[in-house]
Amino acid sequence: MDKHEHAHGHGEPHGHSHGVNADADRRWLSIALALILGFMAVEVVIGLVAHSLALLSDAAHMLTDAASIVLALIAVRLAARPARGTYTYGLKRAEILSAQANGLTLLLLAAWLAYEAVKRLLNPPEVAGGWVLVTAIAGIGVNVAAAWALSKANRASLNIQGAFQHVLNDLYAFIATAVAGAIMLLTGFSRADALASLVVVVLMVKAGLGLLRDSGRILLEAAPAGIDPDHIGDDLLRQPDVVEVHDLHVWVITSQQPALSAHVLVQPAADCHAVRVQLQEVLARDYDLTHTTLQVDHVGEELLQIPSGDHCADSHGPVHRGHDHQH
């Protein structure tokens, strides 16, 4: 078998789709967007009439919901474009950039709401509790409907999960606002509004940090959660005729699309093609890795004679070597 035999995994075709159909995702995202924009316009009017900063801040939150869904729609469309030219993966990572933007806006909005809440605790404004209560209850219904629509889309996508987290946090905000409105209406305790806002701030920070962490791992080419590249390297090394595995990389192209590449050296008498097929079966069966690129070569004489030498002078990654060929 010739050296430098390159092969891709054939568990799935290269153009395979993941999760829910992109057209269905766009439809559910559009429904959620229409619900949010429609109610936001009504809420701004009522907030101005009732002199309620609470309702206006909820409307501002809904504006970020709408922006997150617009980002998600753009990212879904970009990610659906076929790979061409210098973008060999297409624009699939547009959804990861969208998830980062959603996480960042959640944190920025949380900071603003925390500032406003502290101001209200120190100097509580006069608010029409009845208007706040009624509008917040309506807002709960709208956000439940929007969250339901988003839950029907592919939430395995970090991008759509980001939009879902925005709407879910807005739902919590409306519940807190409704409770605050009821308390203000019944007792006149106007600081209830600010205390409710601080509860929502904590939830927003948690969701925002989670989105930044998950999208950051993908942008930094970290291995998928739950997969240990060293364990995979050792597992491949245990297969028959494998002498060394190096330049092993496991990363995530975009949500739910892990990939692996590696350079594998086998015994001089081994069948490169048969070994590659065996390794791909192991990766697909044990690690659910089907987007794989393995370069399988026969081990060179220099590696057999000089155990301390590296096959690749500029190897980028850990080297997994059999006992007979350890450093």
Tell me what you see in this structure.
By secondary structure, the protein is an alpha+beta fold. The chain has two domains: 198 residues, Alpha-lytic protease prodomain-like (Up-down Bundle); 102 residues, ANL, C-terminal domain (GMP Synthetase, Chain A, domain 3, 2-Layer Sandwich), CATH 3.30.300.30. The chain is 60% helix and 10% strand. A five-stranded mixed sheet has the order 1-4-3-2-5. Helix 1 packs antiparallel against helix 2. The radius of gyration is 27 Å and the shape is elongated. The two termini are 27 Å apart. 40% of the residues are buried. The N terminus is likely disordered.
Name the helicity range.
55-70%
The SS-based structural class is alpha+beta
Question: Which fold name is given in CATH as the topology of the largest domain?
Answer: Alpha-lytic protease prodomain-like
Beta-strand residue fraction: 5-15%
| Distance separating the two termini | 27 Å
CATH-level-4 superfamily name of the largest domain: Cation efflux protein transmembrane domain
| Beta-strand segment tally | 5
Which outline best applies? elongated
Using only C-alpha atoms, the radius of gyration works out to: 27 Å
Mean pLDDT figure: 79
How many H/I helical runs?
A: 9
Q: Just name the CATH architecture of the largest domain.
A: Up-down Bundle
